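idk why but the lab printer keeps eating my pages so im just putting this in chat instead. protein + nicotinamide-adenine-dinucleotide:
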Amino acid sequence: MSMPSEKAEAHLSHPLFLNALQSVEQAAELIKCDENVLERLKKPKRCIAVSVPVRMDDYSVKVFTGYRVQYNSTLGPYKGGIRYHQGVDMGEVVGLAALMTFKNSLMGLPYGGGKGGICVDPTKLSRTEKQNLTRRYTSEIGPFIGPAKDIPAPDVGTDAQTMAWMMDTYSQESGYAQPGVVTGKPVEIGGSLGRVGATGLGAVYVAERAFERKGKSLKGATVVIQGFGNVGSHAALYAHERGAKVIAVSDVKGGIFNGDGLNIPELMDYIKTNKFVENFPKSKPISNEDLLLLGCDALFPCALENVIDTHNAEKIKAKMIIEGANGPVTNAATTILHKNGVFVVPDVIANGGGVVVSYFEWVQDIMSFFWDEEEINKRLKSIIIKAFDQSYTMATEKNVDMRLAGMAVAVQRLEKAMLLRGLYPR
Ligand code: NAD
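predcted complex ->
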């Protein structure tokens, strides 16, 4: 793999991006992708950096740096979240925008890939400061976004309220309401039903399909979940509702275990008042490290990246891993797990439910016609299972793991579209 060495390309050297490039190159080799297409897929189309001056509560002005990377728009407008975190830099945003390009392609959505962010610790801002920051950032990237151009969404450190401020700022500057400029908004201003639980539900649909392919059933299966936030708690709830036995879950403070199965609806009520899962009745404590090593039919890592790497991959006893989080299993660990017969469903498939329902939100906003939750879940199931099946067929035909297979399906769709559209100007 060629390393970008020029100073001008320093933002193309982030480990996250280099990891994505490695997968893209392996996938391109597998499907014998056109060389010129591959060259284009290895570079972001546009990287925007903006200064964001903000009036703070003490009346001083602080200048933050914001980014929006528009990686590829072959399949449609750019789509991807906005991250507020002190670790955000251009390199990280390029890596995340590349991943969105391939996830959107694999899901068969009419979207390119983008990502944005601001280097800031949002926990240190008051509500007013966060609102000022969001509005000025939206104004700065305003010329580059829009329902037909680039549609942001929430990510780490941002939420439905942040999207409401973005939508309002963009609409005020346009002179009329433009709900389709962002997704992940509150339902009251054009958000979609089903968006909150979509990623967890998508992961469970994928798990059901994976069990089916292995001649087994999620019903009665033992399930372990790391992370009991948005993704993990909904995955736990939907798995429980389908008759799975969720024997352990955890959060940042540690985990809880009950071999007969935890009562997930009661646990969801419990964390509303207690915030963390610790001391939940009828459970024993377990550490996050040990939780990952439990024997079970399916393990859902839904918290952080790189929790399964070469130091613990050999010790994993789960029969299947469904990546609810982004990047919880490293590439090297995936190779070890594949060799040991552990079936790993990668993040690009397993957590695609969020962006799929974001797509539904955008479609509903454009039509100004809203669907009920049953309709949304039915359509989500059909899209995510198609992505799983296409990857499964690729994995079987080429005898590779699902991570490489999913990337190959994504690159193949982009390749076809890029060759059809051609290069302008010549
Ligand atoms: P969240 O903040 O709602 O939940 C994160 C959970 O992980 C919390 O329970 C937290 O306590 C736990 N956690 C944090 N540090 C931990 C640690 N060291 N050990 C164990 N648990 C820890 O976040 P979320 O929205 O559920 O996102 C989780 C992951 O899923 C992230 O990787 C995110 O990028 C990815 N993801 C989320 C969505 C979505 O729609 N929310 C979509 C796609 C991917």
